[in-house]
Amino acid sequence: MTVEIELKFIATQDAVAALPLQLAAWPHQHSAPQKLTNIYFETADNFLRSHDMGLRIRGFDDSYEMTIKTAGKVVAGLHQRPEYNVAIARPELALDLFPTDIWPQGCDIQALQQQLQPLFRTDFVREKWVVTYGKSEIEVGLDQGEVSADELNEALCEIELELKEGNTADLLALANALAEHGGLRQSSLSKAARGYHLAQGNLPRERHPLAVLKPPAKSSVEQGMVAGFELGLSHWQYHEELWLRGDGLARRSVMEAIALIRQALVVFGGLVPRKASADLRTRLTALEPLLVDKTTKPQVLCYSAEYLQCKLALTSWLVTGAWRPFIDAKAQTKLDGSFKRFSDIMLGRSAAELKEAFTRTLNDDEYEEQLPRLTRQVSAFILLSGAYPDDETGPYIESWRELQLAVAERRQGWYEATRKQALSHAPFWLNGALR
């Protein structure tokens, strides 16, 4: 078994053309382009997909390799997945060559193999460089081709950075250096994810509401903090893809995700000093007005250096735990404490702030002045309410969201009714400031 640690980028043709010269700045070994074919398999009931597994046979020259990837973790485009590779003589499945303990409990391997059928394929040319960067060896792969399922296909133009030896910090640093030239964006969809979508008919992807964070039970404050940032990044990545594919309303979802990330920095700001996130906050602040501007073209912004470096700054901050050198023993003790208890306290503070702002009748200008505060506290509710059932948190949060939306869209006739409705809901949390 190996564990892949890699970053995936979608690249413009200008970025592809510039890549060899950029990589020449560091010691490297180049491999000539090679044509690769990958055939992905699945059952009629999507057994592998339902267990977050992916199975393929890769052909190159006269050699074949069978690969299965099992459930892993993705943080802002940084992929970490256990991978098992087996050389095979012919492009035929032989599942019994994989370790038996990778399969779900009770899985009949022979029966599964009989049910598997080719689902989609990728055909592309891969060019590789192994770059020495810092103390690490990093493989840079350039893939150009297409993914196809029956009559449907989609172009591929990707650059992947995979850590072969060394540390993740060097991988992120090399990515940041390449990002300076523009023309790259972090990919939220793997080749396999695109292929599965094509195999299902390439239906339009739908926007998703920003769901309440649901961290594991008994999470520490630090674990809840990390989960909150990851929620924002996942929402950002998904809706960025929709925005680029022509869904203009997805821009608002990207803005919502960034607002959540900024509020997470505020919510946990009492434990994580501002200097620990100074660069990240500066980059997020610079990005926001570009998203607010309705004339901004996603094909320009999402491939810009500033946009990618902002994402990479957050990825690096999370993956390397960049706040930890700034944390003293007292703060670490608080970060190790109960996220549920911390959330109850912070929910009380958020509710108190909204009650102070909206307890009286406001004129139209005052409502609009309070919109940033309202947006921040709705984000706080999303970050902090996950310990409680949806039927308790949903009506409370949704009532404040409705007021937020009414003010954002300047539906003045709705202001008073939605304000009163929001204030009418009793707090759902324990030990809050309002209990």
From TrEMBL:
GO terms for molecular function: inorganic triphosphate phosphatase activity; metal ion binding. SUPFAM superfamilies: CYTH-like phosphatases. Residues 218-435 form the CHAD domain. It comes from the Bacteria. InterPro entries: CHAD_dom, CYTH-like_dom_sf, CYTH_domain, YgiF. Residues 2-202 form the CYTH domain. It holds the Pfam family CYTH. PROSITE patterns: CHAD, CYTH. This is Inorganic triphosphatase. The lineage of its organism: Bacteria, Pseudomonadati, Pseudomonadota, Gammaproteobacteria, Enterobacterales.
